[in-house]
């Protein structure tokens, strides 16, 4: 299990913009993270007391970044280039009162880009879906394998 401080070293963000609290489990193809940052009043993605569910894509992108860093033994530089099949099942993440689980599965990897399927769901017995989709990370040329 990796803690928030270790995660901060694996994402291109700092402070309250590090949205994931811990890595629950991971292997070469997938990662499962847990977070309660959606409940924090100082979450930088909140607007007017609401945390739009569209922020789910940032949670998923951070999980993909952590997965890449764990697999590659260091941080790769890249940016979120595309979202596909993005589905939202709630409007406001701040209304979810349990921790959120963020699952990301690497679907494709090449020297220029990575594609991950992702799912966010509640960390509760019913595990209700929050968001799902696919994201493409474009790797910067100087960092591409």
Strand and helix map with partners:
Blueprint: H1 4-8, E1 22-26, E2 30-35, H2 56-72, E3 78-88, E4 100-109, E5 113-122, E6 129-139
Antiparallel strand pairs: 1-2, 2-4, 3-6, 4-5, 5-6
Description:
By secondary structure, this protein is α+β, with helices and mostly antiparallel strands. 15% of the residues lie in helices and 37% in strands. The protein contains 2 helices and 6 strands. Strands 1-2-4-5-6-3 form a 6-stranded antiparallel sheet, with helices on one face. The two termini are 26 Å apart.
Biggest pleated-sheet summary:
6 strands, antiparallel
What is the count of β-strands?
A: 6
End-to-end span in angstroms?
A: 26 Å
Helical coverage, percent range:
10-25%
Mean pLDDT: 89
Contiguous helical run count = 2
* Run of helices and strands: HEEHEEEE
Rg computed from alpha carbons, rounded to a whole number of angstroms: 14 Å
Structural class: alpha+beta
Major beta sheet, strand line-up: 1-2-4-5-6-3
Beta content comes to 35-45%
Detail the poorly predicted runs. none
Shape: globular
């Amino acid at each position: 299990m990796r803690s928030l401080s270790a995660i901060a070293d694996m994402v291109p963000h700092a402070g309250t913009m590090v949205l994931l609290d811990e890595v629950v489990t991971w292997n070469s193809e997938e990662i499962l993270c847990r977070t309660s940052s959606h409940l924090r009043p100082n979450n930088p993605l909140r607007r007017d007391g609401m945390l739009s569910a569209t922020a789910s894509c940032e949670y998923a992108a951070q999980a993909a970044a952590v997965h890449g860093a764990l697999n590659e033994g260091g941080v790769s530089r890249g940016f979120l280039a595309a979202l596909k099949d993005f589905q939202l099942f709630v409007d406001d993440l701040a209304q979810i009162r349990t921790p959120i689980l963020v699952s990301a599965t690497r679907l494709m990897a090449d020297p220029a880009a990575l594609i991950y399927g992702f799912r966010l769901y509640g960390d509760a017995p019913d595990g209700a879906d929050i968001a799902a989709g696919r994201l493409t990370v474009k790797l910067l040329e100087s960092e591409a394998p």
